[in-house]
Amino acid sequence: MARLTVLLLLAVLLQGCVLTKLVSVPMRVGGAVISIIPVIGNPAHDAIDTAAEVVDDVPI
Predict the structure, then answer these.
(1) Secondary structure of the chain: what % helix, strand, coil (to 5)?
(2) C-alpha radius of gyration, the chain, whole number
(3) Which of 16, 23, 47, 55 is deepest in the core (most CB within 10 A)?
(4) Counting Cβ atoms within 10 Å, is residue 37 exposed (0-12), middle (13-18) or buried (19+)?
């Protein structure tokens, strides 16, 4: 019974916006770290940020 309760709780927490944020936040942090690299940092950050926005828009 406890396993079922935990599974249901996880299903509720990991639906919709929360799931996409779990994916896109590390992408945005990685993009921020990459942006400090001279010359290629800003274009790479922009590309990662664009990809994170697409992940945020996924209808789950």
Answers:
(1) 75, 0, 25
(2) 16
(3) 55
(4) exposed
CA dist 40 → 1, 19, 20, 33 (Å)? 52, 30, 27, 12
Confidence at residue 21, expressed as pLDDT on a 0 to 100 scale: 78
Burial class (CB in 10 A: 0-12, 13-18, 19+), 24: buried
Question: In the chain, where are the structural domains located?
Answer: 15-56
6-48 pLDDT, tens per residue?
Answer: 887 777 666 667 677 778 888 889 999 999 999 999 999 999 9
